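Exam prep: given the inputs below (a chain plus pyridoxal-5'-phosphate), describe the expected output before reading on.
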Amino acid sequence: MSDAKQPGFDTLAIHAGTQPDPATGARVTPIYQTTAYVFRDSEHAANLFALKEFGNIYTRIMNPTQEALEGKVAALEGGSAALAVASGHAAQLLTMHCLMQPGEEFIAARQLYGGSINQFNHSFKSFGWNVAWADADDPGSFRKALTEKTKAIYIESVANPSGQITDIEAIAAVAKEAGVPLIVDNTMATPYLIRPIEHGANIVLHSLTKFMGGHGNSMGGAIVDGGNFDWAAGGRYPLLTEPNASYNGLKLYETFGPITLAIAARVLGLRDLGPAIAPQNAFNILTGMETLGLRMRRHCDNALTVAEWLESDERVAWVRYSGLKSSPWHDLQQKYCPKGAGSVFTFGLKGGYDAGVHLVNNVKLFSHLANIGDTRSLIIHPASTTHSQLSEEQLVAAGAGPEVIRLSIGIEDAGDLIADLDQAMT
Ligand SMILES: *Cc1c(COP(=O)(O)O)cnc(C)c1O
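Solution:
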C-alpha cells in the first residue's frame, strides 16, 4: 500500500497503536493485569535488562495496555514515540528529570494550570530545578529570562483556566535560538485542536485525565517525544548523551536517536521514580480516546453556544473565551485551532465574588468539582480551589482572580446547560 495518504484524525484515534491481540485475537486491547512477564530464556532476560532488545520486564516500566495507549498518543500528536505515566504531573516530573541537573533552570509561562505552578515553585525547587517565569502573551519575555543555565521552555498551548491561546511558533523560535527544547502542555487543546510539534514544539505533555480520556474516570499522563531535537548539540543534556552508569555505559542518544527522550523517561524516570499508569486506567483512556474527535467537536460547539449566551446576559460582567470575536486571543485561535477554541473558559459576574459563590452553590446539572475535560459540564471557583495556593498577584497573572468562574463545558444538550446557569445566577 502506498503511504502517500495519511489516515484522518478520527481513523487514527480509533486504530492507531492497537491491533487484534496477538495471543487471543481479542479485537479490543485487553487489560494486561499482570506485574511481570516470563522470559524466553536467560539470554532474552539479559538482553531486555541491557536494552539490547525491547520487551516487557515489569509493569512499572512497561505493559502492553500502556504500550497501545502510547502508540495512539504518539500517532495523534505526530511524535516519534510516547510514554504513558500515572498522571499529568508525573509526565512533567519525568520530563524535567531527563533534562535538569541541580542548580539549572527552565522558563515557564505564568499562565499555567495552578498545580503546575505549585509543582515548579515548590517540589521542583527542592530538587534544585529552578523556574523563571515569563508572560505567554509576550514571547520577548522568554528571551529576556534566558541564562546559561536555562535547559527548557515550558508553555501550555491553551492555558488552564484562562483558555488563552499561546503563540507557540513565536516561543518555539526563542527556544530554537537558545538551543533548548520547547515543552508544550497540550492538555486543554488535545491533538484534535492543536498539534504543537507542527508549530515547533520538541516535547508535548498531556494530562490524559482530562479530554484525552474524556470521561472523568481515570488518571493518566503522557510524554510525547517530538524526535526533532538534537540533544548532543551544545553538550547540555549529559543524562541523554553521556555514558550511563546504570546501563553499563550505554549512550542513550547515540543508541536511540529520535526516541531518546521517550526512552530516557521510561528506563531512567519510570524505572527509578516509579509513577507507572495502572493497566485498567490505560484501558479506560484508550477507550475514551477513540471518540476524541467526536467529543471535541461537540465540546467546542457547546462551549461557543454557552459563551455567546453568557456574553449577551446582563448579569455577566465579562467572558474570556478565545472563540468569541471579542477575545484578545481570537486571532491566535483562528491561527492555531480553527476547528474550535476548546471547552474550558472563564467569566465574571457583575455581582463579583458573592455572585460567583451563589452560582456555584445553585447549579444542578453542572458539577462543582476540580476537573476539566469530562463529558459532564463542570464548574469551579479557581481562586478558592485549584489555584488557592497562589498569591494574589499570581492569581491575576494566571487568569484566576477572585471573581473568576471556570467552566468546562461537557457534551450534554447546550440548551440544558444554559437553562441551568440561568436558574442559578442571581
Ligand atoms: C490537570 C492538568 C495537569 C495535571 O494533570 P494530572 O493528570 O491531574 O496530574 C497538567 N496540566 C494541565 C493543563 C491540566 O489541566
